[in-house]
Design brief:
alpha/beta, six-stranded parallel β-sheet, 11 helices, about 15% strand
């Protein structure tokens, strides 16, 4: 078997479009679909075929990759694609769907004879565009030759967490990782907001922690987006981060873990969205500290 695959990408938002583009650049035959067709159309210039519906998109493909909003959306779109799905096709489910949705997604895969790969990715817009994502993957060993070239095209590293996609081990690890990302983003927004409120130059804080154990590149990167007003286009949108925060809180609650920081972060993100920052980078949760927009 050659390393070239026929790949259908369902969902061409920030992440899906970048992944589809890198798949095409790697020589794979790519078919794409998005609910809003205008987000898929630019991929035609990269050699992708833009399908009119999910069934047309998956026609004859070796691998179906879903990168949609949540588990419910992924299942809905795959149901639309069902008439054209072939048994033996690999389904790479890259949506951050949470833990509870995996059972239903895996059941759909079994019903249609698909090889199911629970494969969320770690990374945002820039690593996605550069093909430098980290793929967290769980799925059957016997069909990995189908999906490995796909993972190699979109990511710099694949971390295998198991051989049963239905167990959700990759999605569990993704939620743990995202809990840290969301907590760090919330803390970044609050430290900038407190500095604003107390009349402290943020740079004096950065100078104070420079080079020490409290310093971190992520803090500085997200702070720059706020301080320089570069919140669009988003690397990871406020609404998506809020959805993930809620998935984290729900997963923790179902396993007897209370996650106060994640719950508060979800509320901050939802408040920022209500203030008009829904499509901006998640760093815009900074604005949730204020009743009115401050001069960042």
């Amino acid at each position: 078997m050659t390393d070239q695959r026929s790949v259908s990408v369902l969902g061409t938002g920030i992440m899906g479009a970048a992944m589809a583009r890198n798949l095409a650049r790697a020589g794979h035959a790519v078919r794409v679909w998005n609910r809003s067709r205008d987000k898929a159309e630019p991929l035609a210039a990269d050699g992708a075929y833009v399908a009119g519906d999910p069934a047309e998109a998956v026609q004859g493909t070796d691998v179906v990759l879903t990168m949609l909003y949540d588990g419910r959306a992924a299942l809905d779109v795959m149901r639309q694609a069902a008439p054209a799905l072939r048994p033996g096709t690999a389904w790479v489910q890259a949506t951050t769907a949470g833990v509870e949705a995996i059972d239903e997604l895996a059941a759909f895969a079994r019903e249609h004879g698909l090889h199911f790969y629970d494969a969320p990715v770690l990374g945002t817009r820039q690593p996605a565009e550069a093909g430098q994502l980290t793929v967290l993957a769980a799925g059957p060993a016997e069909a990995r030759d189908l999906v490995t070239p796909v993972f190699d095209a979109v990511g710099a590293r694949t971390v295998w967490t198991g051989e049963d996609g239905a167990a959700g081990s990759a999605s569990r690890l993704k939620l743990v990782a995202n809990s840290w990302v969301i907590a760090a983003t919330a803390a970044t927004g609050e430290v900038l907001a407190l500095a604003e409120g107390l009349g402290v130059d943020p740079q004096s804080f950065f100078d104070l922690i420079a080079g020490g154990p409290l310093d971190m590149g992520y803090l500085r990167a997200k702070s720059e987006l706020v301080l320089e007003g570069r919140l669009s286009p988003a690397s990871f949108a406020v609404t998506t981060a809020a959805k993930d925060a809620r998935l984290i809180v729900e997963a923790g609650a179902r396993h007897g873990v209370r996650l106060d920081v994640a719950a508060a972060s979800a509320e901050r993100l939802e408040r920022a969205a209500a203030q008009g920052h829904a499509d901006e980078d998640m760093a815009a949760a900074y604005f949730a500290s204020f009743d009115e927009k401050p001069s960042a």
